[in-house]
Amino acid sequence: MSSDEAEIFYYHYESMDWESENETPFSNWKTLADVWMWNLLN
């Protein structure tokens, strides 16, 4: 992941207070990053 994409990832989830759309906190940011990267590539 490029540093620009990492910054986009960070600010996206920071704006959501690191919670899902139903306000459940994410338990593992590394899983979110894996999904984010997978979506970039596919």
Tell me what you see in this structure.
With 42 residues, this protein is an all-alpha fold. 62% of the residues lie in helices and 0% in strands. The chain is built from 2 helices and no strands. The model has no long low-confidence stretch (mean pLDDT 94).
Structural class: mainly alpha
Average pLDDT number: 94
Order of helices and strands: HH
**Fraction of residues in H or I helices:** 55-70%
User: Tally the helices: what do you get?
Assistant: 2
Given as residue ranges, the uncertain stretches (5+ residues, pLDDT < 50) are none
Task: Please give the radius of gyration in angstroms.
Answer: 10 Å
- Alpha-carbon distance between the termini? 14 Å
β-strand number: 0
**Quick one: biggest sheet?**
none
Which band does the percent of strand residues land in? under 5%
Spatial shape: globular
Outline of the structure:
The protein has 42 residues and is mainly α.
Summary keywords:
single chain; 42 residues; mainly alpha; 2 helices
Give the secondary structure arrangement, pairings included.
Elements: H1 3-15, H2 29-41
